[in-house]
Amino acid sequence: MKQLYFICNLHSGRAMVSSYLGMILDKFTAAGYEVTIHPTQDRGDAIICAKEACDCGRYDVLVCSGGDGTLNEVIQGCMSSETPCPIGYIPFGSTNDFARGLGIPKDSEAAVDCIIHGEPIAVDVGNFNGKHFTYVAAFGALTEISYETPQKFKNVLGHAAYILNGISKLSKIRACRMRIEYDGDVIEDEFLYGMVTNSSSVARFLSLSDVQWDDGLFEVTLIPKPENLMELRQLITAFSKIQIGPEKRYLHYFRTSSLKVTNLDDEPVSWTIDGEYGGAERINLISNQKQAVFFQVDPAMRMQAEEVGETGLAVVMPPKDEMFSPFQELDGMEDIGSLAESES
Question: Is residue 329, in this structure, part of any structural domain at all?
């Protein structure tokens, strides 16, 4: 009988995992798996359990249910083992950016079928100062909301909890002076935001097309501080469009396998990796570990997820029940306008 180790976070996704456990276990058992289940007990618990499951050599697949943070811990554990297991993912988080990009269904029953009938595909893993991440490392405006938004709010409001928390912090946005070195090039400027990604979707608003999960390359997006209020509004307009193509002149966008990011400010700059606090080091080394892990994915659904239209950076619309744009709030924020004017 095939062996499956199941790590689940019962608090993710409005704490809905518990309601689906019976179905999940029944489907895996009917498919010929003997299931060992471990509900996470504390932050970091999934790292330890995932490493032990991989090290013992007993399991055919390691399944994780929860949000992006839980998945990140499982990746950390797998990457610290010399014998990592193939990973199956049942997304229950508030955003589930990584799952969406890979074509892993949001519906839990369909996600289980994807694991049972899917095929292993190689996926790159990022390394950020020795820590691993699956889809994003970011600094600057609003990056802290992912790890500062209380779990109880996420359980009640879902993705909207991030948006509301973000709006409350808009007036506190400040630019960060950073030096970015990659492939022999250097960019030095003041940035409102920067992200290093291996995902076609970030926070369900920003969407990167033409992303390859196994090419050993990151997509890097850097948003400089506007020089004046008019440029700030042009930047907002660029992000308000579904496909911003020609508006890329307001930001830096490139692909690379590694980069060095140095904070040139006196104040520390915090980073987030996969929605969790990533530290505030002055010098940050980021590298891509090509095809480091394998995920059980339905090839047809993955191809469908990759069909996102033209190449470039876009803003994707949330589901109809969450039709709410943070960019509308920016137009009336005098503090941000004065920030752009006073610091220019």
Answer: yes
Residue 43 lies in a domain: yes
Contact status, residue 35 vs residue 29, Cβ threshold 8 Å: yes
Q: pLDDT for 270-294, tens place per residue?
A: 998 887 888 999 999 999 999 999 9
Domain count, the chain: 2
Residue found by looking up tokens 């359980």 in the block: 155
Domain that holds residue 183: 132-289+306-342
Please report, for residues 40, 75, 76, 161, 290, the alpha-carbon distance to residue 44 in angstroms, rounded to integers and kept in the order given: 9, 11, 9, 23, 24
Helical residues (DSSP H) of the chain, grouped into ranges: 12-15, 17-30, 45-56, 68-79, 97-102, 108-117, 145-148, 151-157, 160-167, 229-240, 299-306, 326-330, 334-342
276 classed as catalytic: yes
Domain identity same for 139 and 277: yes
The Cα 328–Cα 118 span in angstroms is 41
Is the pTM for the entire model greater than 0.85? no
| Residue 279 burial (C-beta neighbours within 10 Å; 0-12, 13-18, 19+) | middle
Helix (H) or strand (E) holding 32: none
Q: Which of 181, 231, 276, 329 is catalytic?
A: 276
Q: What one-character-per-residue DSSP string does 247-290 give? A: GGGGSEEEEESEEEEEE-SSS---EEETTEEEE--SEEEEEEEE
Question: Residue 8 in 3-state DSSP?
Answer: strand
List, for residues 240-270, the tens digit of each pLDDT value: 443 444 445 667 889 999 999 999 999 899 9
